[in-house]
Design brief:
alpha+beta, four-stranded mixed sheet, Glutaredoxin, 2 domains, elongated, 6 helices, oxidoreductase activity, acting on a sulfur group of donors, disulfide as acceptor
Length: about 190
């Protein structure tokens, strides 16, 4: 008789352990589902972006945004970028390039990305029309996009008159022979 009661007690213990394991697995699945659903908007847009070389060659104006997941300004601007994609995505290409992804290092060097977010604006022929570093309001991004679509010069926008690629860049003022190269990853 004693053997039967120990089997029953063991069975209850097994049930409790089984319920505990089921609870832990359910919680883990829920957490994984939430984390997958909460992928950052910039990351979602980056995954659906065209490759830079395709965007520059397809006859549409293009905006490159160099960003990082850890960049607070980039995250703050993400709703504006998502909205821009929804509003003008059929007339304009938006290519998001994460500076922490080694794949984009050649472009980071080519366009001298030294701060984020950095926006690089190209016309429909793939010609560089302007560069902007830092926070841009939704209105400014939309206005710049409209100018690109209408093939107007970004320098005609008062707020963007410093974006001409013909104007000096801050890095032109630095004697680079004495300093090490700076890129967005060197700050992390």
């Amino acid at each position: 008789m004693a053997d039967n009661s120990s089997l029953i007690a063991l069975s209850k213990l097994q049930k409790i352990l089984l319920m505990l394991v089921a609870f832990v697995l359910s919680a883990a699945l829920l957490i994984m589902k939430i984390s997958v659903a909460s992928v950052q908007p910039l990351e979602q847009l980056a995954r659906s972006s065209l490759l830079p070389e395709i965007a520059l060659a397809n006859g549409k104006p293009t905006i490159f945004e160099f960003y990082a997941d850890w960049c607070e300004v980039c995250q703050k601007m993400s709703p504006s970028i998502v909205d821009l994609e929804k509003r003008m995505g059929d007339k304009l290409d938006i290519v998001l390039l994460n500076v922490d992804n080694q794949r984009w290092s050649p472009l980071i060097d080519k366009y001298n990305v030294n701060g984020i977010p950095q926006f690089i604006f190209f016309n429909q022929d793939g010609d560089l029309k302007g560069i902007s570093i830092g926070l841009l309001s939704s209105e400014k991004i939309i206005k710049a996009s409209e100018y690109l679509i209408d093939n107007k010069e970004l320098t005609d926008i008062e707020e963007f008159n410093n974006m001409s690629p013909d104007r000096f860049k801050f890095t032109d003022l630095i004697d680079t022979s004495k300093s090490r190269p700076v890129n967005p990853r060197s700050h992390s």
